[in-house]
């Protein structure tokens, strides 16, 4: 970069497409030479058309700002001159460069055709752990000045600073890594191989020693592993309240939190199990961790399990704060499943594959950078694209087919390191999915523990059911077959054949007939399944994703499906037998094999294990009889058979849950903010196979003043949801949402129970332009994860967030960023959902009320979780608006209102609601 002229460009426009008539409203150019900013240029541009309200909301650029601004043709000579002989740099080249070229051509100037560097691509390669690659998020992560995001001059300067910071990062990497990044960069979309070539030459002219914390092994630079020492930790005594006071800034005493700690300790000391509900604001995280720490002081080991990876990290961060106060007296680690970790031998081999697929190339670059930084080798540290995850599936850890000592990377293996660290740790943090999956294995991964703490325990039954169930997915079956069959150079069968020939091993080979039969039977079986699904599913208007319960449908038609899968099973077994025999023969030559050949065998071995799982699941679904299982098909009618999944879950898993999590081997405490239905824990206790008389059961209400800080309103001018069509209901709620959004100035979360209704509402609002002054962010429509969408929501003054499924819980938007929560419907699961339907039938057969026993408790708990999004801190205030009049018109409505803090239900028309909202907020 020393001698290169660089032009960093950013533009703001009236929309996304120059071809559709959108135009530039602001442009900025920052010229860099010799790694220094030499010149900055910025100008508003008259687009000769109005600025859409959304653009003004995003950029804060108004019509008044453009008064007297030049048209683009007036400034085109200056822009063209600055770009002459330069490398064009932008944060998302695919947008800025075509747009600018359109304007230049229109003004009678030549398009820019020189080298171009995209700082989005560069950031992905060099900052693989960044949560987001948006410019504003990157500058925040790097503490760069960026005071006016979405204005061209501020964005261009921030992009220039970002480029120079990324250049510095490359210069800090080992030369070997930079050379490898250069080789991969040849296949990126922008011309970043030139960037890496310049960095490479610069490094060669200023060679330096490898950093002390890095090493090079087998041609890959990575961070050295820290030794894990087994040591005896000193005992320590803490006074609980003063200890919490040191941990929490601005601490205010919470009696419930201190009682929760006592309850868990009493349960553990008396070898009992505890079931505890701790409302929002009780301080559940420390309420869990303090008892764990006190048990560690007695020389005991504690396992904590929670639901999400984000919650695992939150527990770990708080555990590390505690440890800092105890002078590093305890060792805490997070333990995840094997497939979360990179298999270094497979990765090494993959670097030699000439795979030019874009997502794979970018993933390799991210991994090369990341290996110089990571101490864990855990994929959750990375921000990989969806396409890159297919590549990760090839190089993730799946155990060893050959003995571990045959892997030259064994001593540096990340997964083995995580198990060793867990063995020596006092507190191990994991998630319910991994813990439940581990309970089914003959040899369990978790080290022995004395106490078990189950956080977010309301998820336990559902997670166990998924982990212990059976699932055959069309896409996964086809992917597994194609990886072996390999019509491309990745085909493992072909690679194995080459190794067999090299060592003159006489083993049966897969031939074209094997492949043809296998592909034919896999296509035929899922075609039959799709045909059966379409013929038997009860179609619902406007809904594409359907499910079909198999326990009570046409058995005659099912026989054709069954026979098809039996034929597929026979072909899979025949091919697997041939490959397994080849691997067995090659295993006898293990001492002669090259490392590259061992990597191929490991890859094929892990694929064989995947095939074995698929074979076992097909057996379970189509051959064996399981009276206690519920079977169903899921699929999208627009893409059959591609979307098909067939599932079997056990109906009653209460005994298994009890044996796995609440046995007599160790005391357990199950904790959540939502376990009780109308003050009763019966629903959870029965699902866990427990008896209340043998438990410590406690409920701690939130300390927040909900009566003072929350208004609960139900508009009485909305129709009953069952009295109108889905389309009419969407029209009604759209009008209501637009008016409420005006009254609350956005800052509104709208919770739906179905994605179809969410999408239809979002599209009608967009089409009608009723909320054109607001930024609308919708789950499943707007790009990004839940965390990313909620972060974007907080950025804008006037924003509305539409959510379903996962947005009903775990979303934390404190303060004035969220002032209004709208619940469109009471969250009952659809009665035709397979598991619910089967549970209803079982309840009826046992003369129990299925609505009261199955549907209502689940809906009430979901309702409580949704309500919990509104008030996150004690000073938060907000409106809770429920559009579903069943809350006040039905006998069971009280089950919902009595499950949340006591609030007066205000039933009034929309105008009255709006008047009250404006007055109150």
Short description:
With 921 residues, the protein is α/β, with parallel strands linked by helices.
CATH class of the largest domain: Alpha Beta
Main sheet strand line-up: 10-11-9-12-17-8-18
* CATH-assigned fold name of the largest domain: Rossmann fold
What is the average of the pLDDT values? Answer: 91
> What structural class do you assign from the helix and strand content?
alpha/beta
- Low-confidence segments, ≥5 residues, pLDDT <50? none
Distinct helical segment count = 34
Rounded to the nearest angstrom, the distance between the terminal CA atoms is 54 Å
Radius of gyration: 30 Å
Count of structural domains: 5
Say how many strands there are: 25
CATH 4th-level superfamily of the largest domain? P-loop containing nucleotide triphosphate hydrolases
| Bulk shape | globular
Q: What would CATH call the architecture of the largest domain? A: 3-Layer(aba) Sandwich
């Amino acid at each position: 970069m020393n001698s290169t002229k660089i032009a960093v460009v950013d533009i703001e426009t009236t929309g996304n497409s120059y071809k559709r008539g959108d135009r530039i409203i602001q442009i900025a150019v920052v010229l860099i030479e010799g790694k220094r900013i030499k010149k900055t240029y910025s100008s508003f541009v008259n687009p000769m058309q109005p600025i859409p309200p959304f653009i003004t909301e995003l950029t804060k650029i108004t019509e008044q700002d453009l008064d007297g601004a030049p048209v683009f043709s007036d400034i085109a000579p200056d822009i063209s001159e600055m770009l002459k002989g330069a490398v064009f740099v932008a944060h998302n080249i695919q947008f800025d460069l075509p747009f600018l070229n359109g304007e230049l051509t229109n003004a009678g100037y030549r398009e820019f055709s020189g080298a171009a560097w995209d700082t989005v691509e560069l950031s992905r390669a060099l900052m693989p752990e960044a949560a987001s690659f948006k410019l504003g998020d990157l500058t925040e992560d790097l503490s760069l000045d960026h005071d006016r995001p979405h204005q061209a001059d501020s964005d261009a300067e921030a992009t220039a600073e970002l480029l120079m910071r990324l250049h510095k990062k490359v210069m800090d990497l080992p030369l070997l890594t930079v050379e490898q990044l250069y080789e991969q960069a040849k296949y990126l979309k922008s011309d970043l191989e030139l960037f890496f070539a310049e960095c490479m030459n610069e490094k060669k002219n200023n060679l330096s020693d490898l950093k002390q914390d890095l090493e090079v092994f087998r041609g890959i630079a990575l961070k050295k592993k820290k030794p894990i020492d087994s040591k005896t930790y000193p005992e320590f005594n803490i006074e609980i309240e003063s200890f919490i006071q040191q941990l929490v800034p601005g601490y205010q005493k919470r009696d419930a939190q201190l009682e929760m700690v006592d309850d868990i300790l009493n349960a553990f000391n008396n070898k009992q199990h505890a079931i505890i509900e701790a409302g929002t604001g009780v301080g559940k995280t420390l309420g869990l961790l303090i008892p764990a720490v006190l048990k560690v002081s007695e020389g005991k080991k504690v396992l904590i399990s929670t639901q999400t990876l984000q919650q695992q990290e939150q527990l770990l961060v708080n555990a590390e704060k505690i440890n800092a106060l105890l002078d590093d007296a305890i060792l805490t680690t997070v333990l995840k499943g094997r497939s979360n970790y990179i298999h270094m031998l497979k990765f090494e081999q993959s670097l030699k594959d000439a795979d030019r697929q874009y997502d794979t190339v970018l993933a390799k670059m991210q991994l090369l950078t990341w290996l110089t930084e990571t101490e864990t080798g855990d994929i959750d540290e990375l921000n990989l694209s969806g396409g890159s995850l297919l590549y990760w599936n090839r190089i993730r850890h799946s155990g060893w087919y050959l003995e571990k000592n045959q892997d030259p990377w064994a001593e540096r293996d990340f997964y083995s390191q995580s198990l060793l660290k867990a063995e020596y740790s006092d507190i191990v943090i994991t998630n319910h999915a991994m813990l439940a999956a581990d309970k089914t294995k003959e040899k369990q991964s978790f080290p022995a523990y004395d106490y078990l703490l189950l956080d977010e325990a309301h998820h336990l039954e559902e997670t166990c059911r998924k982990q212990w169930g059976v699932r055959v997915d069309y896409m996964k079956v086809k992917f597994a077959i194609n990886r072996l069959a390999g019509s491309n150079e990745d085909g493992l069968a072909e690679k194995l054949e080459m190794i067999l020939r090299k060592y003159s091993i006489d083993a049966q080979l897969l031939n074209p007939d094997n492949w043809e039969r296998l592909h034919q039977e896999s296509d035929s079986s899922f075609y039959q399944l799709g045909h059966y699904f379409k013929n038997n599913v009860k179609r619902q208007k406007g809904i594409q994703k359907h499910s079909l319960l198999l326990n009570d449908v046409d058995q005659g038609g099912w026989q054709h499906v069954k026979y098809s899968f039996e034929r597929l099973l026979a072909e899979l077994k025949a091919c697997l037998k041939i490959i397994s025999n080849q691997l067995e023969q090659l295993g006898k030559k293990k001492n002669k094999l090259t490392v590259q050949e061992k990597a191929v065998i490991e890859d094929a071995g892990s694929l064989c294990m995947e095939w074995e799982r698929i074979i076992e699941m097909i057996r379970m679904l189509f051959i064996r009889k399981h009276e206690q299982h519920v079977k169903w098909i899921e699929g999208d009618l627009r893409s059959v058979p591609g979307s098909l999944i067939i599932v079997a879950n056990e109906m009653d898993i209460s005994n298994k849950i009890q044996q796995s999590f609440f046995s007599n081997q160790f005391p357990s405490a199950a904790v959540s903010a939502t376990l009780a239905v109308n003050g009763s824990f019966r629903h959870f206790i029965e699902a866990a196979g427990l008896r209340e008389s043998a438990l410590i059961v406690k409920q701690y209400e939130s300390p927040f003043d909900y009566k003072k800080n929350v208004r609960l309103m139900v508009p009485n001018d909305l129709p009953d949801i069952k009295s109108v069509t889905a389309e009419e209901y969407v029209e009604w709620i759209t009008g209501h949402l637009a008016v409420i959004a005006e009254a609350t100035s956005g800052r509104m979360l709208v919770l739906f129970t179905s994605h179809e209704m969410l999408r239809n509402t979002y599209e009608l609002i967009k089409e009608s332009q009723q909320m054109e002054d607001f930024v609308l962010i919708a789950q499943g429509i707007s790009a990004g994860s839940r965390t990313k969408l909620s972060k974007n929501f907080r950025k804008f003054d006037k924003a509305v967030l539409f959510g379903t499924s996962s947005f009903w819980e775990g979303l934390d938007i404190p303060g004035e960023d969220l002032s209004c929560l709208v619940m469109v419907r009471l969250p009952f699961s659809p009665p035709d959902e397979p598991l619910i339907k089967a549970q209803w039938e079982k309840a009826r057969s046992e003369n129990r009320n299925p609505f009261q026993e199955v549907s209502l408790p689940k809906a009430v708990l979901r309702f409580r979780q949704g309500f919990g999004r509104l008030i996150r801190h004690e000073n938060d205030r907000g409106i809770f608006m429920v559009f579903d009049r069943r809350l006040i018109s039905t006998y069971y409505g009280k089950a919902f209102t009595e499950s949340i803090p006591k609030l007066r239900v205000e039933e009034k028309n929309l105008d009255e609601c709006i008047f009250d909202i404006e007055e109150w907020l």
